[in-house]
Amino acid sequence: MEKFQTILEGYLKIKANPKNYNRAEERLEQAKAAIEQFDLELDQVLRELNETDMRDFDISLRILGKDRKE
């Protein structure tokens, strides 16, 4: 998360004053790609965490379904 913060801060600094930095466009593109990749990875982690939370829910649904059949 610290690396993301560093990349975001650098991106914002360069975006605000690109003429003050060497290879500004290249750096902005690299930072944008890194931020987008981080976002995708974060989405996946959140999805996995949410699915872990749903395991108890799924088990309860199966048990309830079995109870109704009996």
Q: What fraction of residues sit in β-strands?
A: under 5%
Task: Describe the largest sheet.
Answer: none
**Helix content class:** over 70%
| Low-confidence runs of at least 5 consecutive residues | none
Compressed to H and E, one letter per element, the order equals: HH
| DSSP summary, beta strand count | 0
Shape: rod-shaped
Structural class: mainly alpha
Cα end-to-end separation: 50 Å
- The averaged pLDDT comes out at 92
The value of Rg in angstroms is 22 Å
Q: How many helical elements? A: 2
Task: Give an overview in words.
By secondary structure, this protein is mainly alpha-helical. Helices cover 87% and strands 0% of the residues. It contains two helices and no strands. It has helices at 2-16, 24-69. The radius of gyration is 22 Å and the shape is rod-shaped. The model has no long low-confidence stretch (mean pLDDT 92).
Short overview:
The chain has helices at 2-16, 24-69.
Q: What features would you highlight for this structure?
A:
rod-shaped; 70 residues; 87% helix; mainly alpha; single chain
